[in-house]
Structures are given as C-alpha cells and as structure tokens.
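ARCHIVE CARD
Drawer: 12
Card no.: 0347
Subject: one protein chain, sequence and derived structure
Cross-reference: see card 0346
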Amino acid sequence: MAKTDFQRYLVPFDGSFSLDDVDNIPPEGEGSRKKNKKELKKVQRRLDELQALFYATDNHSMLLVFQAMDAAGKDGTIRAVLRGLDPAGTQVFSFKKPSAMELDHDFLWRSARCLPERGRIGVFNRSYYEEVLVVRVHPEYLDYQKLPERPPTLDETWESRYRSIRDHEQHLADNGTVILKFFLNVSHAEQRRRFLDRLDEKDKNWKFSMSDVEERRHWPAYMDAYQAALNATSREHAPWYAIPADDKPYMRRVVAEAIVDRLEKLGLKPPELSEKERSRLDEARQELMSED
C-alpha cells in the first residue's frame, strides 16, 4: 500500500505554523483522482482490520476532530473514511449552535459528554474548537454564555480557552484517548466554486444557507483564528494536521492514512486468553463436536 507523505501536514508543536506556508492542493504528481480513490479503498480495508483489533483490546479510545470552513468537505470525508467500519465501534457527533441547556454549562461540557468509550472511534464534526473559532470571529456570542466574569481583554479570553483545551486534551490522552485533529484547508477560491455549484444544481440547493455567504465575508478573521488555535493547541499527544482540501480524493486518502498510521503505532494485538478461558473453549469445542 503506497502512502502519501501525510506527515508534511503535521502542524508543528512550537507555535511556528503559518497558513501562508501551506498548500490547499496536493503536491505535484499526487492529484490523480483515480489513483487516490483506489488507494483510499486499500486504506479503508486496513482501517477495518485495525478497528476490529482496537475494539477487541478495549483499552484505548480514539477521538477524531474535524474543523473547516463551510464546503471544505467534512461530511464527505467522514463518510469516506468510516465507510465499511463496524457501526458498533464508531460514533459521530456534530456540534452546531449551542442549546439553552448547553449554555448553562462550561464550553467543554457538551462535547465531553459525547466522548468515545474505550474500544471505540469517536468523530467530532466541529467541536469545542468552535469556541475559539466562530466565537473569536463573533465575540458578541460571549454575551449569551452566562459567564460570571470574563478576562479584561478578548486576547486573554482566547488564551484562557486555549489553556482549558490543552488541559482537557492532556487529561484525555493520559487516560487512553488517542487524539487526532484535522483542519481541512480549503482555499477561498475553491469555496466560492463549491458554493456556486450548490446554487446552480437544484439537487444541491439544500446544502446552501445564506449564513454561508455571511461567514465568507469574515474569511481573513477566520484564517487568523484557525492559525492561532492550531498553534496554541497542536501537541504531540493531540496533533493537528492541516490537510489540503481543494482536492477531495487526495484529502480523504491523507486523512485515512494518518488514522491508520496512528492505530498501527499502538501495536494492537488480539487479546490473549487465560489458561482457564482456553480450557473453557476446549470444553465448548468438545460439546459442539459431540453433536455430530
């Protein structure tokens, strides 16, 4: 199984990441749709094997976080990567506008209650990172969060939330959660093209919302927010990958390969049975054989 150099998209842990230095398109020679779709199928088969072992060992959980601008391909990527996996071992949660009940808790609460159990792969389609992305672009949203007191400046607010996120992810990692985070890095021009497709094709009209265009007007502010959040929270135990999203087949393949690579590094093996358990299996075999 040929692999892409997906590690090139790893966001450094030293705060040196810049969106100006990364691409929205695959490297030269890596953009073949046919090849990437073919390779993705191979990766899916390997992921299926690893998921079965992951579920059987039952001592880790995996959290996959997807963040992106609208039309970057989060939904399609999640579907493509998880296709063929045992539904009993996967969980997908989407986070949109907070409910009244969610606003009565701290900003990590609504996602914390959706964390995957041991043996399962959990996916967050958007996540607690919305609190340092959308809310950073629209700080007026803080007025609805019933905070008893706020830091003197907005910069201090974001730094406080970055610290809470880092501590949260460190706690999860310390307790066996394998964390991978993906920023699907679509370009401004490609987002425009996909929005126009949604408007031009009647079957895609349902995907379009006027809020999409409204948020697009804040593109520079969103890019600043993403860059700051990735720099503040990409750590070895909870890394970010900034994946080129203008080419969907390549993007999906890269995401799947990163997940497979991380699972392979766990050294997963089928659970070993005790002598007592093996003896009981022998008894069961003898009983079944005797039915002949």
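Annotation on reverse: The longest helix spans residues 33-57. The mean pLDDT is 94.
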